Amino acid sequence: MVGTAMSAIRARRAYSAVVNGGQDLSPNSTPPSNAGSECGGIEFTREDVEALLAEKLKTKNKFNYKEKCENMMEYIKRLRLCLRWFQEVEASYLCKHERLTVSLEIAEQKLAEIEVSSKNKEEELSSIINELRTNLSSAQEKLTREQADKMAAIDSLVKEREGRINTEKSQATLSEELSSAQQELSSANQRIASVNEMYKRLQEYNTSLQQYNCKLQSDLNTASENIKRIEKDKAAIVENLSHLKGQHISLQDQFSIIKSSLEDISKQKEFLSNEVQCLRGDLLLVRDERNKSQEKAQVLTAEIVKYKEYTGRSMAELDNLTVKSNDLEARCLNQCDQIRTLQDKLTVAETKLKDYGISSVETETECEDQRKLIRELQARLEDAEFKVIEGEKLRKKLHNTILELKGNIRVFCRVRPLLPDENSDEGKSVSYPTSMEVLGRGIDLAQNGQKHSFVFDKVFMPESSQEDVFVEISQLVQSALDGYKVCIFAYGQTGSGKTYTMMGKPGIPEEKGLIPRCLEQIFQTKESLLSNGWKFEMQVSMLEIYNETIRDLLPSSRSNGNGTRTENGSAAKQYAIKHDTNGNTHVSDLTVVDVCSKQEVSYLLNHAANCRSVGKTQMNEQSSRSHFVFTMRISGVNETTEQQSQGVLNLIDLAGSERLSKSGSTGDRLKETQSINKSLSCLSDVIFSLGKKEDYIPYRNSKLTYLLQPCLGGDSKTLMFVNISPDPTSAGESLCSLRFAARVNACEIGVPHRHVGAKLFESRLSYG
Ligand SMILES: Nc1ncnc2c1ncn2[C@@H]1O[C@H](COP(=O)(O)OP(=O)(O)OP(=O)(O)O)[C@@H](O)[C@H]1O
């Protein structure tokens, strides 16, 4: 077919070459097909062409013969040329044909050789085929075995596919996580860039800090030595004090005895002087009577003499007068005796009076001496007490400095008193060691006959008042005003006194809790610092985390229009927790209120307390079922020094841990209890990881830990209250709380920094 087509094409070319003036008839072009033996179909000879031309000429212009003749001549010329070319081509084809026959012969020879070798190969192949057949049978056996294996493999493949699907699913979730992680990464990269910039500045700052640190270290060493010395002095002073107190008491006893004997003596003296007075009166009376009698006797004697002279009187009258005179004389003598005895008595009484006077003067001087001694002792006592208080203040300050340098979370333990309905007959489970080393800081807990000892930064016994507790944390409140982030939270079993410690009892001023007391101190200090040029602005927010959901506890601006607002002003209540690159935490959409007075905050606190999720459980009549977070941001500006500070105070009342078996919770209460226990266990996990200095800290496992991340992770002065019930039936829970608190106390979270500067900070409320 291809050959035929080729011949047709060549014929058409030859024809057109002839008709069109032979343009295509060069020796290099494809020859016309009169030499087309290879075409095997239609063949063109010279005659064919001439006939073709003749026919053509016949049909063309029959009228212009001359022109036709010329054309004819021209055609003939070209045809001759064509003929010559055909001849040349034929000769070349003949040459080619000869060469081809030679090569055909060679090929036939080769074919014969190949046939021989193929026969040999056929034999070889038949032997191979036999071999292969045997191999095939064994291979078939293998195949059956492999098919069984294949079935098993298919099963496992199916399983693998299922696994793969699961893996793909998890891959999808992982890729989601990856995308979120990538987002985080990009934000982290941004942070890194800013951190790098900060790092440069910090390095410079660091060198200066290192120098300062060296100085602080030496100060610390001297301070520790001072503490030791002060503690020794304190022990000596305390001993001296107790000795002085004993002396003071015995002297006071002596003084009271002397005083009473002095009173007796003065009473006797008074009595005796009264008696002397009476005796003197009696003596004067008797003397008067005696004088009168003597005068009478003289008159009578004169009368007798007269009678004797004038004997005109009767003897009876005379005798009568003599009797009278004798009588008077006897009476006179008698009175003289009386006067003598009275004078004797008087002298005795006077000597006694003198003696008493002397002894009373002596007693009074003795008494004065004693008074002086007492005054001296009292002064020494006051001095010693002042020294003890000052020493204790210094010790606390140095202790705080040491803790700040170490970067630990501080822990205070508070034991509440037994409640009226608790059984006090079962004996005591809590005791306090009295050794000087841990006095006021140690607590021993007895459980199942075993004693567990713990030491914290401070232990408050049941008798400690709310004021005593506040005094210990007031320094931290001052730190918030100075520009530090401060976080105080209460942890403990349900009913152990957390809410009492943080909020106190409403309506009883002495039993106000830490939160109202902190507010009082902040507003007082705010007023007093006005004279130093400091002006403060405060913002508060209050939230609770209930069943892993954040709830706003403040009235929003939309509901009461009293100046409250939300962080972004939108109506949606999403309450997402976010940490910014400055280490501040924000809760989106949460109500933040600007406050100027204690009264305003008290009103908001009452509002929050009323909104808080509280319920009755077997363990506590008024049990808090949520974690309560009070936050106050304190921004200070000093117009004189152009300084600024930005402090944050977080006060947190955690929901109480409780055993499900003991709480007897069911339904919603059970769900609450489980949620509380879960978030507290997340808190415990975070503390555990921090304690072990792990790379990954699981802050995100609960809302509470994520919110407290800055407080737990450093850059905050953090204090934990561990509240304990003294009831022996709660010893198990108390032991768990104390163990957790000890772990918290051992946590090193970094050194907090003061946020002060000359530049304005962002003024939105943050948690840490
Ligand atoms: N130091 C204390 N002095 C006197 N009473 C106290 C003291 N501490 C606690 N209480 C009383 O003990 C009871 C339980 O205290 P509170 O409600 O504060 O416990 P809680 O730890 O907050 O419990 P929950 O976790 O269930 O909320 C209350 O009646 C409270 O008045």
TrEMBL record:
Residues 21-40 are annotated as: Disordered. ATP binds at residues 492-499. One of its GO terms (cellular component) is microtubule. One of its GO terms (biological process) is microtubule-based movement. InterPro entries: Kinesin-like_fam (IPR027640), Kinesin_motor_CS (IPR019821), Kinesin_motor_dom (IPR001752), Kinesin_motor_dom_sf (IPR036961), P-loop_NTPase (IPR027417). Residues 23-36 have a biased composition (Polar residues). GO terms for molecular function: ATP binding; microtubule binding; microtubule motor activity. Transmembrane segments: none annotated. Belongs to the TRAFAC class myosin-kinesin ATPase superfamily. Kinesin family. KIN-14 subfamily. This is Kinesin-like protein. It comes from Trapa natans (Water chestnut).
